[in-house]
From TrEMBL:
This is L-lactate oxidase. InterPro entries: Aldolase_TIM, Alpha-hydoxy_acid_DH_FMN, FMN-dep_DH, FMN_HAD, FMN_hydac_DH_AS. It comes from the Bacteria. FMN binds at residues 93-95, 122, 144, 172, 252, 274, 307-311, 330-331. The keyword Oxidoreductase applies. Glyoxylate binds at residues 40, 146, 181, 276, 279. Residues 14-379 form the FMN hydroxy acid dehydrogenase domain. Its EC number is 1.1.3.15. The keyword Oxidoreductase applies. It holds the Pfam family FMN_dh. It catalyses: (S)-lactate + O2 = pyruvate + H2O2; mandelate + O2 = phenylglyoxylate + H2O2; 2-hydroxyoctadecanoate + O2 = 2-oxooctadecanoate + H2O2; 2-hydroxyoctanoate + O2 = 2-oxooctanoate + H2O2.
Length: 379
């Protein structure tokens, strides 16, 4: 039996053949993924303190609901820039999804199109910009950029995204080097070195021109690694990109309110509050704890999207109530992908949307744009 939106609770006797909770998703995915792949997806940097704080931060905020507010019709739509989307949910730019399922980003992008949420494609995806475009014509897509040491590669990838009809560029700024990831060290597993994230590079003319005749696997992977990690990156690179593209630029990895003005002055059209899901700097502030100050510093000049720690619909509502314009979903959809490909991602998104709808209804808020009126109590 297939359940439509709104009737999950009314058909509670129907067996949940697909995992519903995040914990169940994780455990089912663990059974199906290789040890290295599961460890890579599940783990985080160092002692995983930030990974834990990202989720427990939501428990510190309690919803104070209102009653009898006429919530018969729930409007979950959000507008960012010139585009309106039916739900406040984005697929986060998770790279190398072929680790989890053979169809990787193609399956995820198709699921996003089916449900109606934007798909953010990673620079280090397992399929190229052009392959994802071909698989999901006429659906909203953004492109996430890891700034390359060779800036011509960055400009080239952005131009490809423009030609493919992508709606925005997301520049990740918290990955100037890889975080200290003990699980990957223990399993001796590096998906980048295995070649899972090279599709956009081997199909890029600027990258291949710079590579020259050294097109063997080892040379290509080393060049990818050399390009991804660029400690010299600064705000001038964002300004240079802003001059080269007409697409809105979102800066992903903002936690400090003083970086907000730097981003805006450099030409950013939006911000994404994120600590990379705890995978980069351990011991840093939980993303949710950083959100209110970043929203205040943005002062409605640019939209602020939230990433890192979303596990369920109540989390989505709390992040939106604290000022986020939308949220990004990462690990939950990756586990769904590992369990059942495109269908698995669709199930995860459907459950998140339905729990968000129910949470809004029971809290007395009928429209996402009114969630700033929802009172949260810090406990």
């Amino acid at each position: 039996m297939s359940l439509t939106k709104g009737d999950r609770q009314m058909n509670i006797e129907v067996p949940a053949v697909f995992p519903v909770s995040y914990q169940a998703l994780e455990q089912e995915a663990k059974k199906l993924m290789s040890k290295g792949a599961y460890g890579y997806v599940r783990s985080a940097a160092s002692n995983e303190e930030t990974l834990r704080k990202n989720t427990t931060a939501f428990e510190k905020w309690s919803i104070l609901p209102r009653m009898l507010r006429n919530v018969a019709d729930i409007d979950m739509s959000v507008t960012l820039g010139e585009h309106t989307y039916p739900y406040p949910i984005f697929i986060a730019p998770v790279g190398m999804q072929k680790l989890t399922h053979e169809e990787g980003e193609l399956a995820t992008a198709r699921a996003a199109k089916t449900i109606g949420v934007p798909f953010i494609q990673s620079t280090v995806s397992s399929y190229s910009i052009e392959e994802v475009k071909a698989a999901t014509v006429d659906s909203p897509k953004w492109f996430q950029l890891y700034w390359s040491r060779n800036e011509q590669v960055s400009f080239s990838m952005v131009e490809r995204a423009e030609r493919a009809g992508y709606e925005a560029i997301v520049v990740t700024v918290d990955t100037i080097m890889t975080g200290w990831r003990e699980t990957d060290i223990a399993t001796q597993f590096s998906p980048l070195k295995e070649g899972y994230g090279k599709a956009n590079y081997e199909s890029d003319p600027a990258f291949m021109h710079a590579l020259g005749e050294k097109t063997d696997h080892e040379s290509m992977i080393q060049s990818v690694l050399d390009n991804i990690h660029y400690p010299e990156m600064n705000w001038s690179h964002i300004a240079a990109l802003a001059k080269r593209t007409s697409l809105p630029i979102y800066i992903k990895g903002i936690l400090h309110p003083e970086d907000v003005q730097c981003a805006i002055e450099a030409g950013a059209s939006g911000l994404i509050v994120s600590n990379h899901g705890g995978r980069q700097l351990d011991g840093t502030v939980a993303a949710l704890d950083a959100l209110p100050a970043v929203v205040k510093a943005a002062n409605q000049k640019v939209p602020v999207v939230f990433d890192s720690g979303i596990r369920r619909g109540t989390d989505i509502v709390k992040a939106l109530a604290l000022g986020a314009a939308a949220v990004c979903i990462g690990r939950p959809f990756v586990y769904g992908l590992g369990i059942d490909g495109q269908v698995g991602v669709e199930k995860v998104l459907e459950n998140l949307i339905e729990e968000t709808r129910i949470t809004m209804s029971l809290a007395g808020i009928a429209r996402v744009k009114d969630l700033n009126q929802l009172k949260l109590i810090r406990e």
